[in-house]
Design goal:
Layout: E1 18-21, H1 27-38, E2 42-47, H2 50-63, E3 68-72, H3 78-92, E4 97-100, H4 115-143, E5 147-152, H5 165-185, E6 190-197, H6 211-218, H7 227-237, E7 249-252, H8 256-259
Helix pairs in contact: 1-2, 1-7, 3-4, 4-5
């Protein structure tokens, strides 16, 4: 006798949850937004590029109607940060999840790296993430029902990578921020974590015709990550299923930081 086995897809359940995601016009951030909306969340999507943000919002609303509102602008600008939080509360009455995903990578040799490049990396990667988390935490505390904050770090915050001293430094700092906020925010039932992606196939990285081939050879699991790989991990960490996880960084790199060979 044969029995049919029906396996339901694993879903974290984000109905009635409201999220803000920065740097979400494409790539990892977009897939996080799209996945959250698909699973029932309302999302405020931010990107520096207004056209990219608008197109991303249209696509998400096409797939998951009335689920996405766009706030374009520099995610490290305090006025834009406040607008994102205000939009979430004004449109959807609350804020439950923040993914500080926006970041900038400016390659450069340490000996000739300019103060302008350094300050830009720190402003976007650190200041923007810090003050978005601050504004979101204040709102979550007012609501009294907790929430989740997540930072997008990088495998280069764990292993040195040529010409990325400032970038790697900024990403390692985000992981320390996640740890420190355990002390500050756990009493309000807000958990704070980070993900550290390794090589990932995005619109930007695929501009390099050899990126997939080179990182497939270099990554122990035989391929770079997809944006879905990263988004699925993010969704778990900001879901109700991960409420007891806080102050942690999940490295998603196919094993690269265990062996750390440089890509060609």
């Amino acid at each position: 006798m044969y029995y049919a086995i029906h396996i339901k897809p694993f879903r974290m359940g984000f109905k009635n949850k409201v999220a803000v995601v920065t740097g979400a016009g494409q790539g990892i951030g977009f897939e996080i937004c799209r996945s959250l909306a698909e699973q029932g969340a309302k999302v405020v999507l931010n990107d520096l590029d207004p056209d990219l943000a608008k197109q991303a919002g249209v696509q998400i609303n096409r797939e998951s109607p009335d689920s996405c509102t766009v706030v374009a602008g520099d995610s490290s600008n305090q006025a834009v940060i406040e607008k994102m939080v205000e939009t979430a509360v004004g449109n959807y009455d609350r804020l439950d999840i923040v993914v500080a995903n926006a970041g900038i990578t400016l390659f450069g040799d340490f000996l000739s790296y300019s103060p302008e490049a350094f300050n830009k990396v720190m402003q976007v990667n650190l200041s923007g993430s810090f003050f978005l988390a601050q504004a979101a935490a204040r709102q979550m505390i007012r609501q009294g029902s907790g929430g989740s904050i997540l930072f997008t770090s990088s495998a280069t915050g764990h292993q040195a990578h040529k010409n990325l001293a400032a970038y790697g430094m900024s990403k390692a700092a985000l992981e320390m921020l996640a740890k420190n906020l355990v002390i500050e925010l756990s009493g309000y039932k807000i958990n704070v974590n980070a993900v550290a992606p390794g090589a990932t196939l995005t619109e930007r990285t695929m501009l390099d015709a050899d990126y997939n081939k080179n990182w497939s050879k270099t990554t122990p699991m035989g391929r770079p990550a997809s944006v879905q790989d990263i988004a699925e991990s993010v969704l778990f960490l900001v879901s109700e299923k991960a409420r007891q996880i806080t102050g942690q960084t999940l490295i998603i790199d196919g094993g690269w930081t265990s062996v750390s060979p440089p890509a060609d």
